[in-house]
Structure prediction request, 982 residues.
Amino acid sequence: MLDPVEFLQPNRRLFIDTNVFMDTSPHRSGGLKRLFERGQTTILANSNPVVVPTKVVGELTKQSQIDPSGESEERAEAIRKAGAALTFLESASRVGLVRKDLGDDTNPYADDLFLQLFERFAGTYEMCLLTHDITIKLRIRLLAHRLAKRLLVGVLTKDGDLEVDADESLFDRGHRKYARHAARVADGTGNFKDESEVAVLRPLLDEFGKAFGLKTPAVKPGPRTARPSAPSASTTSRQVATPAAPVNPFSARARLKPSDTTLAFSALPSEGERVEWASADKTGTLVLGALLGEGGEGAVYDGDRSTVVKIFDKDHLTRHRKEKIELLVSRNLRTKGLCIPTAVVRNSAGEFVGYVMPKASGREFQRTIFNKRKFEREFPNWKKADLVDICISFLEKVQYLHSMNVILGDINPKNLMVDEKKNVFIIDADSWQLEGYPCPVGTPMFTSPAMLGKTYSDDLRTMEDELFAVATMLFMIVMTGQFPYIRTGTDGDMVQLIKEGNFAFQYENRNNKDQPEGDWKYMWSHIHKPVKDLFWHTFHREGKRYKKRPTATEWLEAFKAYKSYLRNSRMSFDPMSNDVYPIRNKAFKQDTPIQDCPTCGRKDAIAGIWNDDNEEYFVPRQCNKCRDQQPGRTATPRQVSVPCRDCGLSFPKSQLRYGRCPSCAQKDDERQARSKTLDPTRLCARCQKPYITYGNVEWHQRNGRAVPTTHKPSGGRYPAGCVPTPAPATRGRATTTKQSVQPQTGFWSRLWKWLTGN
Amino acid sequence: MARLYIGADDLVDNPTPRVPVSLCLDTSSSMNGSPIQELVRGVNLFYDAIDEDDDAHDSAEINIVEFNSSAGLVHDFASIERLQRVSSLTANGMTAMGAGVNLALDTLEKRKATYSGSGVLYYQPWLVLMTDGAPTDNIDTAVRRVVDLVEAKKLTVFPIGIGSGADMKTLARFSPNRPPLRLDGLKFKEFFEWLSRSVARVSRSTPGDTVKLDLEGLAGWAEL
Prediction:
């Protein structure tokens, strides 16, 4: 047992996760109150408030808004607790006991935020996180081990002491949690959260076991399987009746199999002929139905209502394909949207010739969402949110396959289909890479720089190679078929474009002169910032994720956040952000004027453009489309010379950035950077620390106002870090003593109310 | 001007990589009569086939250069949707093949520059050279340009001889990688069908991929 107050010392930090505030367990009740009672003097003395990140506050807010009627008693209690916690946090942050300004709402996931913080500041502080979540506990324990730093995770007892799991017990609990989720995934009752936990926990537990030298415990799904298993129809079919043994993933470390060879056969069956099939647990015969199509590898025939049969041609009837399909069939994986082989097909001589798989519905991405003409014909009513749903549907499947150690390999817009309900189907399972059988095909556009130049059939792809293809596909879905590395000035060599890693879409203050022409830049400008960040960092050679690409789970979180962003009109204030083909840049801010175009009547087609000089919006008379069609304007007004707004010299328009020539633009950047820097010569009259930026000082001076002498109070309170120093500022002390005493009664009574529920 | 804009719109709105195809056609006096009529019919059939193919429709961009006593542009590059069918070609005069090929290469370079300048992906272009005779101008520059491009893998060239008068030795100079082919009789229809299938095949691949030509399909029109 440890004293959490120790983490309120100046060189240490204490964090609290959402679930602690919503904990309804009676044997821990009162722990938080004890913690704050015991810690308050230390917190205030060190100005080291307990950290409750903005994301946690956001999660509590979301929870507190749920209607508790109809929920279980325990759940309703937790929802009520979330609401009470918010009130508590509000008052606690005012008196400087809690800081909740850390991180912003754009962090898709509180877990990741904690992990980032702990990793980043491990060298600076000793840190402790209070949480009940086993996954984050495992992750932080592992991080502490890896960095050899003191980073703790635990929960509070009734008395406000810190309870920390032993490595072994944490490992056991992790395995039980994994088994619970995996069982649901396996029996088909699992949801996205189950799949996501499985995908995260499996490699995590592996790594944890190795790091701490622990043996995998024999685990049965623990007693927490509260969810009733789906009632199964009384049927004789073993497939339905067999419950849920968790499906074992394929081996993650299989070596490359020896080269593929073709198989001998006596005859290839065709339409109308009878073939034998064998699934994981049954056998039978079927007659090949109508020929549905002939591809590069063989022919596909109608099976029954929900299945089709693929018969390989002589060149593609190979040992690898046979063994791979047998493996897939034997695991009996069933997930909607994945056309995984369900039975091996043999000809009358008993030779392997193909396989049965579920029928996909919909049409290839290539023939639907990747082409404007076809998109507008197929799905005229779709919005950006629908494309985000497609990304989510795609990612859920990829995440599941990755959790099974299957690498899709040849991800391309002809292997993915989408139907009018936005379901994504992944076909061509026989090309997947698993158990050392490579994916023998590929598409250059989706091939990672490291894999380019290798032979698909002779090399195993790494997860990094796969994640390049996943990222490229996501970009192309959101950008309706546009390639991430498109830019002006290419000679059509796609391999070169991928290798050079020059992602040209406008990002923050970078030069954007290579962006492709047309409306693509507008489309890019409207993408949700966190998703944009991930794209940029993944594709640009200077990005942080260029060599360590985001996983399917990370993307899934980001796209789910994108989805809720589009649904929230306060966050996504520009109505055009939900258009598939926007015709202007995203509006600058919430108060940016947005108007319909008076010439063509296009809705929301005009947004005000912020002018830094006179600090107001300029609203164009016409939309971009009408402006471009004016007589005298051509599509590409090249080499028009205009004067630089700062130095007045003439420059080609394409070289200017916000109206400034390159050298003035650089000076402006430096000015901007300086204006955001705190002026070290000015100290707050209360806390004696720097408090105001150069830019803010200039603004006051420019507007003839007195420069403030203290931190800016908001709502009558000073920020948490602004604690009066006892030294020279006598006047300051007098006022602040009053402030820190007065609300305290209110705060403790509110705290009491929160803890007791009265 | 407004119409020009629509052209550009059309170019950049479509993210499909383009394959520019230049048809460089001999319209000297010897083509007069049924050869030129069959040629026009074949070209229009080519357009129809490209139009109907889901993939080629969005990728192919075609122009026609003719050469007789001089070289001229029949129409510039455009997507199939914007192409008028060719009503007729007039055959008369000499066979300025060198000028014809040079003009075709110039238009291809210009088109590539447009793609590059606007940020449109493309496949390396195709040049289809069809003649029933022998050049009456100097072809050395044209030959050198074609050979350089083919060797740098920046051009695929199809030199096709029409009838027994076609100078296959000259055509061979334009084709460093494979021997030129002679059209079997006036099988323009079969040739252009094959060409459209080949373009479709390319537009289903990714730029940079090596695309195998349908060599078996050659038998439909080529005299082997």
Observations:
- Residues 225-244, 727-745 of chain A have pLDDT under 50 and may be disordered.
